[in-house]
Structures are given as C-alpha cells and as structure tokens.
Specification:
Chain lengths: 331, 331
C-alpha cells in the first residue's frame, strides 16, 4: 500500500536525523527514586525490553504497562478521593433535596456526624455514589468533577487532590512512555471520574483508562444525542475484574503491572503468566511521616495476600519510605 | 517534570529535521478513490482539522475516527464472516458432539441443508454462536479463528475472507493515521474475533477495537491464570450500544464516523452532535457487479433510516460503484 511504502522509505531516510535527536541517556529520568533494588529493577527491565540485541526485546506495540490508580498513582487516605467527591457533592446537591436533612445516610453527611459517617455501611456508600453519580449526562457529571477538583482541598495536606499524585510514579510513567510503552490505568475507580484529571496529571489519554463503569443510556434530548448516567453498575474493575478489563479493552497481556493492594493481585498474576521479561511491582505504604503506613489490616488498600505473593514470586515491593526520595511534588 | 522538558527541547531542536522528513504532499494517498464529492469531502475535512492556521484545527489527540467493520471495512455478504466462522466451526467440533447429527440447528449445518439453514431463527444463531464462542480460553478461541482465516475461502470470490477488506478504506485508514488520527473499529462483531486479523489487515491495534463482548471468567488453572469465554453476552456494540461503547472505551467524542447500516446511525448522530469540523459518512452498497447492491430492504446491513438521515443532514454517502476505482485489493 502506497502510504505504508512512503513511510517505510521515510523511516530509512530519516533514521540518522532522528537518532541524533534521541534523548540524552546520561540524564536521570527518575530523580525522585533513590538508588536501590526497586529502581535498579525498573531500569534493568526497561533495558531488557528495549535493547533490540537482547532475546528479551519486546516490540513497541507490545510494551503495555498497567497501573492501579488509588494508592498506586495517587493517595487513597483517609478515604478514596472519589468518595470525598461524592460526600462533598451531597452538600452541593442538598438544596434540591430537602428530604435528606432527616434521611440517612445523607443526614449524617450534611450534619458532618463523624460517628455516623464512620459507621457507613457498604449499602450506604452505594446509595451515596448512586445519587451523586447518576441522573445526569456524562458531560454534566464531568463538569461537576472538574469544579470539585478545582476547589476541594485534601484534609491532611491542604492541597488540591490532584497534587497527591506520587512524584516518583509520574516520573516512571514518563520514563516508560519515553521508552515506547503505552501506559494504562486499570482502576476500581469510576472511569468517568478519572478521565477528568488523568490526562493533565498523568499524561494518560482517555482511551488508556480502564475503570468501573455505571450503566449508560443513549437518548435523543431536544434533537441532540446524549449519554445519561444510570443507577447501577455494569462493570467493576477490581480483583478478577482487572484482568477481564485488560482483556476486553487492551486485548493484549501487559508486560508491566503496578498495584498496591490485594485488589491488584489478579492483574499482577495475569501479567506474570505471560512470556518474556516482566516487571511486577507493589507500592508498599510504609511511610506514615510523609504519607501513610498500612498494609495487611487496612480497610482501604489492604495488602495481605499480595505481600505474600510478592515474596514468594520475587515481585518488586517498592518501599515508599526508602525507595522514594520525594513522595509528592509539593514537598 | 524532567522528561517533559527534555522532550520539549528536543521538539524545538529537531523541528527542522523532521519537517524535511514529512511525506511528500504531491503523492496521492487515496489512489482507489475516484475524483468526486466523497473524495473531495474527505480531503477537505482532513485539511480543515490539520491546518493549524484554520479555526477548524483539531489537536492530534482529539482526532478520533471510528469505523464500523462489517460492510464498512470489509464485506458482509452472503453472511457475516463471523457467522461463516461459526458454521465452519460446528463442522470442526462435530466429532466431539455426536448428538449434533440429529439435533437442530446443528444437524442442518452438518448436513449442509440449505433450506433449513435459510430458515435459521435468531435463537438458532445465538445457540450456534454460544457453542462455538464459549467454553474455551480467549487464547484458544483466537487460535481457532486464526486457523480458520488461514484456510477458509469466501464462496463467491474464492479468496481468504481478509482479502475482502475494501482497498479504498485501507487507504483511508492509512491516510487518516498519517494525518495524526487514531482509527478505531466500533463494530457489532465480537471483539475477540476481530482482534485476530485487524492489526494485520487494517493496521488497527487491539486497544483500538471496540466490539460486542461475551462474558469472561478469570480462573486459575494449574496455577496459571486464564480468561475463559462464558456463554452469555455482556455488551452488544450495535445501534445505541455504539455511542455507549465509544463513551466507555474511547471517552472522547469522535470527529469522523463511517458506517454502512442503520446499526451505525446512533454512532453517526453522536459524532455529529460534537462541535467543529466533522466527517460523517455512509458506505452505500450499490455495486452488484463488483460487490453487492443492497440497502433499505436488506436483512444484512439494512440502510434505511440512515439514508434518510444522510440526505437530511448532508452527510457523505459513498457510492461503491462510482466513488471507488477499485473495491478489493485482489481485483
């Protein structure tokens, strides 16, 4: 085919010019990573799959790296940030819902009743998420998320939530992409929520984000087609859902996978079952001073079976305390 | 961030070298398209969105083009090719299913009973697809599809099915990608089926394919995780399902959409509702000599409401007979 031939010829003609423009290799692409086993493993893996003289070389289209989001790319304490959005959203929506002032769980949120909030059941949370995440178009929902991200502050750090992206992971995403990788988010979080900030914060475009999905309805309103977010969940991108989401949306097994909880274990197992060089890594929250310290007993981001699997199988465990020179960009 | 700065500097330094390597504009990227309204509209649209001096310019990450598959990128007569695979697969699987010899609809397939085959109900077809598309891992299924594609021949043209991709559309895909577009398939066909050939035939990578999806189960078998295709459908990527699939998987409204049937109408409407320059097009099967002629009355690929919408809204209708110099590459 004509265009293909043209591009092939151009490739040859321009190889020299492009080679001269390759990034200078002596610069440090991972300045927020301390020297140590994790950093060494990352750099070694990238060399293994990008050096075309090695048997472990992987062609660029197959260089797929997947990342959990909450607790892996940004923080997830004291509550998942999407839940913080939902709670704030209940306040914003309250004037249209006078009945909420006496109706649990909304009354607890509106009255800032800490005790009642701490006792919220899973059923309560589903109700809160349903009310704040359905009954509007996708565009309307994303405008609400963008407005919230622009003003809300994290309670501990008094920073915008997006500032709680981990600086070493931002560098890692850039480093992998500079080495021909496609970087995907594979998160239990809502896909419409993440797409509002992931491109700006992580440099990950909308079609490389996999997340949980609510039901959608296609409707013609006043002659214009709109997509309306419905109550009810169509796909939960967590645990066994993660490899399923990867198989469906990426359609190719990753060669690198990063997570921080047991919810990521199936994704790491699925990645590990492929052939060739792989990078499997858990981010371990062990730095209560700069971030938080939690693993086997935590309600949020529990990492228990995953720690055992990592030890058994020789996966990389990234210590936030010792492997990361800097945790957040604002430090 | 470090890598971003580096890339920015490189962009400046290398701009001249790269500009010198840009494809020669005087060559014809669409040699199988006759001069005419359709071709003119395509070329004009690409100029509108890629010329940064125009108000209609669209940045590259937003240049999303979506294509139906059956009847738009390759032929769909006398039966959908995926159904041809399923029928052949029944023959392949028959030795393990002696009961099929007396059991409809399988007995009709195995006995090549044309009359009974022509009378297959939707329920029969669901049963045939279920039996041939579930109960194996995704990898096993895709091996079966690859084996079939390597040997099966189209009954009219005596060519491999993949040779029935439309040459003008292959050129169009290349042309759009050479102009910074991402090209997505958005098809009612099965996603696991299309991924076997779409990369080779269309140059479309697995993560840019949206299709109908069966249920998947994640299982650990002999210590290895596998994804097993289950009976039952999770998502039908047809009609209103197409904009829903686009919203979920691409997360961004396309600026160009190509279809050939009423099943693509919602996708074209959804694309048309966006701002700025757009290319909306129907491929019209009006060439019984070189391909087939069918539209408003056809069981396969019915184009009825879509033709009306195209006339009303000024969408492009591509006549296979007059707009295409060549239909198939083997001609």
């Amino acid at each position: 085919m004509f265009v293909r031939l043209t591009q092939q010829r151009l490739t040859t003609v321009c190889a020299l010019a492009l080679a001269a423009c390759a990034p200078a290799t002596e610069s440090d692409p991972l300045p927020s990573w301390n020297d140590g086993a994790a950093r060494t493993r990352i750099v070694e893996f990238v060399r293994q799959v990008t050096d075309s003289t090695l048997a472990t070389f992987v062609p660029a289209p197959e260089r797929i790296a997947v990342f959990d989001n909450d607790g892996t790319l940004w923080a997830e304490q004291p509550i998942y940030f999407q839940l913080a959005f939902a709670l704030d959203r209940v306040h914003t929506m309250a004037p249209e819902h006078p009945e909420w002032s006496t109706q649990m769980p909304f009354s607890a949120i509106l009255g800032d009743d800490r005790e009642a909030l701490a006792a919220l059941t899973e059923h309560d949370i589903v109700e809160i998420v349903t009310v704040t995440h359905s009954g509007m178009t996708v565009d309307e929902f994303q405008t609400a998320v963008a407005d919230w991200l622009a003003t809300a502050r994290h309670p501990r750090f008094d920073q915008p939530y997006t500032a709680l992206a981990y600086q070493p992971m931002l560098e890692l995403l850039d480093y992998l992409r500079a080495n021909g990788f496609k970087t995907f988010i594979v998160s239990g979080g809502g896909i419409d929520f993440m797409r509002v900030f992931a491109e700006d914060v992580y440099g990950i475009t909308s079609e490389q984000i996999i997340g949980s999905m609510g039901k959608l309805l296609f409707e013609i309103r006043d002659g214009e087609p709109v997509l309306v977010k419905q109550p009810g969940i169509d796909f939960i991108d967590d645990k066994e859902g993660k490899p399923i989401g990867i198989a469906r949306i990426i359609g190719r097994r990753p060669i690198a996978a990063f997570g921080n909880s047991d919810g990521d274990l199936a994704m790491l197992q699925y990645t590990a079952a492929g052939p060739g060089a792989q990078l499997l890594a858990y981010i371990h929250h062990d730095d209560a001073d700069r971030e938080w310290a939690y693993d086997r007993e935590s309600h949020i981001g529990r990492l228990d079976r995953g720690l055992d699997a990592a030890a058994e199988r020789g996966w990389t465990v990234v210590s936030m305390k010792s492997d990361w020179r800097r945790v957040f960009g604002f430090e």
